[in-house]
From TrEMBL:
Organism from which the protein derives: Weissella halotolerans DSM 20190
Name of the gene encoding the protein in the UniProt record: lepA
Superkingdom of origin: Bacteria
EC number(s) recorded for this UniProt protein: 3.6.5.n1
GO terms for cellular component: plasma membrane
List of residues binding GTP: 18-23, 135-138
CDD domains with a match to the protein in the record: lepA_C
A Pfam short name: GTP_EFTU
Family assignment from sequence similarity: Belongs to the TRAFAC class translation factor GTPase superfamily. Classic translation factor GTPase family. LepA subfamily.
Name of the protein: Elongation factor 4
GO BP terms: positive regulation of translation
EC class name: hydrolase
Keyword Transcription regulation: no
């Protein structure tokens, strides 16, 4: 360990949503004079509007703080912020891999909750040191003793003596937190003389500078204008600028083992460099990358369409969003009912919600988003290779299909013993298959194999509800598995509406179709004539309702003739304006 490294600490703060992570980060920056009172604002690291609205960190940030201890020694504290929702699990794991320790923050009014345990598990898998902290101890609703017992159940090494009690809001106990970072989180131990080995834990795209990455250097030295190689795709580039955030960008000439900083790469393809990539020098570099890199694959897909002919504006906005969010993917899509738009790929429903809200808050665009779905693998008669279907409209006709497979995940749930029955009922009601049941101290670890389509909508929220907030969910991809899936087509006024095409399990389709046509009857805008809504599967109508006309028919003779009805059936497209309320109602059906 170099002399410089002895005075570096790289750490994260991990917590359940709304337990005070961003507030503690603000106090640390204030008490190390990283930001002045004039510059200070609430949730300084959560600078996106959607982050402040949801109280969730979406994009990880890092900031270098300079801490002077009571003996007068200055330390470099690199605080690496982490995303705070289960959809961003991979980014959390990579951010934690860039640290040597983490502050595990628990709200004294709520105790250990879902993301507390999930992040604890990720930190343990990363092999980093944890410092337990109970926050909001000055709150009238605080129950410090109960929270302490829950922490000791989580990890017996968490004792009253090793657990700090603080109020991040008032600053009570934060001095002790700064000392604990110095004394309990180890200094980095990399070798500056070895080949450069750096981990990318965040990346964003700048239209002028190209891809800008944040990286932790484990070994070696990085000089301004070094020729670098990003090992996942073997992309080489010259570093245009290097530096660190404090919290604003500050350029420097050298970063070395133990440091955390940014690199301006000049790479113009935002998909070329992703979180988890390893950086080395092009000359005398590493032979093998750091472990743990994954290509980010969407879990769900949904259509995004503009309202009122704002396609050009939506196209520009989506391009800009994708540059700063490598996990968000999109392709153009045409719908007869909704016009020209895009099919987006998302990490989960919360990620979709974030993109939708960013389109509104950052670009002033109100969009229609269709019902999300997973990718299906379909084996078709007479074809040797399967088709991968992301859009339900591309799902083949039933008489052409040999077999349909859908993607599965392994859902690992941790919860207190008393919630086991409720969780098992929930999981098995979503076609979950129990794989493993184990005990961790006072908690249970329950592993289910479940279809992505069954957990995509509100499984996370339902799990929190049945466990009163004490269960945690972490998911990892599993393989595809055979499934009895069918395509549900909705016709309005005898014409199929492509935006209302669904792929779902045969067990659910009858109930879903009946509820859907009943809801559509009230939500689809009326016309002068009555319009039937028909839900059909495999050429057979399984549910029907009628949209009443705008006004009652004045005379009996004004009822459409059989010939008129037949003409309407013969391929005429339904010109229906579908409001977002239709798709919100569909999501509501899926959540029950």
């Amino acid at each position: 360990m170099s002399k410089k490294q002895a005075y570096i600490r790289n750490f994260a703060i991990i917590a359940h949503i709304d337990h005070g992570k961003s507030t503690l980060a603000d106090r640390i920056m204030e008490m190390t004079n990283t930001v002045s009172q004039r510059e200070s604002s609430e949730q300084l690291l959560d600078d996106m509007a959607v982050e402040k609205a949801h109280g969730v960190t979406v994009k990880s940030r890092t900031v270098r703080n300079y801490y002077v201890d009571p003996a007068g020694q200055e330390y470099e504290y690199n605080l690496i912020d982490t995303p705070g929702h289960v959809d961003f699990n991979y980014e959390v794991s990579r951010s934690l891999s860039a640290t040597d320790g983490a502050l595990l923050l628990v709200d004294a009014t709520k105790g250990v909750q879902a993301q507390t345990v999930a992040n604890y598990r990720l930190a343990k898998e990363a092999g980093i040191v944890l410092v337990p902290i109970i926050n909001k101890v000055d709150n009238a609703m605080a129950d410090v003793d109960r929270t302490m017992l829950e922490l000791m159940d989580l990890d017996p090494s968490f004792t009253p003596d090793t657990t700090l009690k603080i109020s991040a809001k008032t600053g009570l106990g934060v001095k002790e937190v700064l000392l604990a970072v110095r004394d309990r989180i180890p200094a980095p131990s990399g070798d500056p003389t070895k080949p450069l080995k750096a981990l990318v834990f965040d990346s964003k795209f700048d239209p002028y500078q190209g891809v800008v990455v944040q990286a932790r250097l484990f070994d070696g030295r990085l000089d301004y204008r070094d020729q670098l190689t990003f090992m996942a795709h073997q992309i080489s580039t010259l570093s245009k600028e290097i530096g660190f955030f404090a919290p604003q960008a500050q350029a420097t000439n050298v970063l070395s083992a133990g440091d955390v900083g940014y690199i301006v790469t000049g790479i113009k393809d935002p998909q070329a460099v992703q979180v988890g990539d390893t950086i080395t020098t092009s000359d005398h570099g590493l032979l093998s990358p750091l472990p743990g890199y994954q290509t980010i694959e969407p879990m769900v897909y949904a259509g995004i369409y503009p309202r009122g002919g704002q396609y050009r504006d939506l196209k520009v906005a989506i391009e800009k969003l994708s540059l700063n969010d490598a996990a968000f993917q999109y392709v153009p899509e045409q719908s007869e009912a909704l016009g020209t738009g895009f099919r987006g790929g998302f990490l989960g429903i919360f990620h979709l919600q974030i993109i939708r809200e960013r389109l509104k808050s950052e670009f002033g665009l109100d969009v229609i988003t269709t019902m999300p779905n997973a990718t299906f693998r379909v084996w078709v008669q007479g074809e040797d290779q399967p088709r991968y279907i992301e859009n339900p409209n591309q799902f083949p006709d039933y008489h052409l299909i040999k077999e349909v497979d859908e993607p599965y995940v392994l859902a690992k749930i941790t919860a207190p013993n008393e919630h086991l029955n409720a969780i098992m009922r929930l999981a098995e009601g979503r076609r979950g298959e129990l794989i493993d049941l184990a005990t961790i101290g006072e908690l249970l670890s329950i592993t289910y194999r479940m279809p992505i389509s069954e957990i995509a909508y509100d499984f996370f929220n339902e799990l929190k509800s049945v466990s009163h907030g004490f269960a945690t969910l972490s998911t990892s991809r599993d393989d595809y598995g055979p499934s009895d899936l069918v395509r549900l087509d909705i016709a309005i006024d005898y014409a199929n509406v492509d935006a209302l095409t669904f792929v779902m399990h045969r067990l659910h389709v009858q109930d879903f179709a009946q509820v859907l046509v009943t809801k559509l009857k009230d939500l689809v805008p009326r016309k002068l004539q009555s319009m039937p809504i028909q839900a059909s599967v495999e050429g057979r109508v399984i549910a029907r309702a009628d949209i009443p006309p705008l006004r009652k028919v004045a005379a009996a003779g004004s009822k459409p003739s059989k010939k008129q009805q037949q003409l309407r059936r013969q391929g005429q497209k339904a010109h229906i304006d579908l409001p977002q309320a239709v798709f919100d109602a569909i999501l509501d059906i899926n959540s029950h």
